[in-house]
Specification:
globular, mainly beta, Thiol Ester Dehydrase, Chain A, six-stranded antiparallel beta sheet, 145 residues
C-alpha cells in the first residue's frame, strides 16, 4: 500500500488505484482491510506517534483523541461505501481503553455497515490486541455528489 502525502489539510491514500482523502493529515495509515462474506469490514490502521496532535494531547502521556477515532471511522466508512457522509447521530459511544500511540499504534476496526438510499448506519468495535478500546453506533446522512 502506498501512502501519498499532500500539503495542506488533506492526505490521500492510494488503495489499489483508489484515492481516499482524510482531514487527519499524516495521523494514521490504513495498512489493510478485508470485507467478510457477511458484508462486515475489518480495517487495520497504524497511528503516527509523531503527529503534532499527540504533543498537546497530552504532553508526556499521549492519548488518541476520541474525536479523531470517530473521524477515522467516518473516513473508513466513506471509503468502503463510496459515499460522502455527514454525521447525524452517535449513540452508545463507549471509550473503554486509552489508545497510546507509543504503546499500541496498531489498531483493528470492525465495521458493520448497513446502508440505504439516504443513510448509512455503522456499528464499530476498535481494538488493539485483545483489548477493546472503543465501541460505538453511528448514523450518517449521505451527501449527494
Amino acid at each position: 500500500m502506498n501512502v501519498v502525502f499532500q500539503t495542506g489539510l488533506y492526505c490521500t491514500f492510494n488503495l489499489k488505484n483508489k484515492i481516499m482523502q482524510t482531514i487527519l493529515t499524516d495521523f494514521y495509515t490504513l495498512t489493510s482491510y478485508e470485507k467478510a462474506e457477511d458484508g462486515k469490514f475489518t480495517a487495520h490502521i497504524h497511528l503516527n506517534k509523531d503527529h503534532d496532535i499527540f504533543k498537546g494531547h497530552f504532553p508526556g502521556n499521549p492519548v488518541t483523541p476520541g474525536v479523531c477515532m470517530m473521524q477515522i471511522i467516518k473516513e473508513l466508512t466513506e471509503e468502503f461505501t463510496g459515499s460522502k457522509l455527514f454525521l447525524k447521530t452517535a449513540s452508545n459511544v463507549k471509550f473503554m481503553a486509552i489508545i497510546n500511540p507509543f504503546e499500541t499504534p496498531d489498531l483493528q476496526l470492525q465495521l458493520d455497515i448497513n446502508e440505504n438510499e439516504d443513510d448509512v448506519k455503522v456499528k464499530n468495535t476498535t481494538s488493539f490486541g485483545e483489548t477493546i478500546a472503543l465501541k460505538l453506533s453511528v448514523s450518517y446522512k449521505k451527501i449527494p455528489s
